[in-house]
Design brief:
71% helix; 2 domains; DNA Binding (I), subunit A; extended; mainly alpha
Length: 182
Amino acid sequence: MSTETVAIATQEDTGSQLWKKKYTLLLKKTENIDKQNLRLINRTYQITRITKRLRKEQRFLKNCLAKHLDNFKEEKFYHDTEFTKIPTHQTTIPKHQTEVIEKPPKKPLNAFIRYCNTQRHVVLNEQPSLTHLELTKQISNNWNNLNKDDKKKYYLMFEKDKQRYADEMKVYLQKTDNISKS
């Protein structure tokens, strides 16, 4: 054998050894995961058994108290005790979040949605058996059959609402800029 064939053979051996190492590592990891899963399944089974036993004991005690005509349902067990809240962990609130964050203004409704909102009750009163889908189809057909003059009313309402939204958005952005700068 020449030196070139020996070098190629050793490279193939190292490649297969590397593959075997990776395979064994993955196999060990999956075995560990399987063991952890079995432990978790066993623990959940134990917890369900414990809770069933506790519920059974609770029912038994309630029945015993009911037999002795004890007024346990109306009794306050901790009437003299004052409970204090034990902090689990301290969280600090950043200063910029202590102020109340105002919601942005609502976007304007387009002309078709405005028409739908006004006509929905009218169509439902005429045909109360319509499903939501059929009702929407009926209203959209009515919208498509409307004159431009009738639609113009809804478009004007949309333009006014769009202007309102732009004005409120300017004020909102100024407020949020002031909060972020401070």
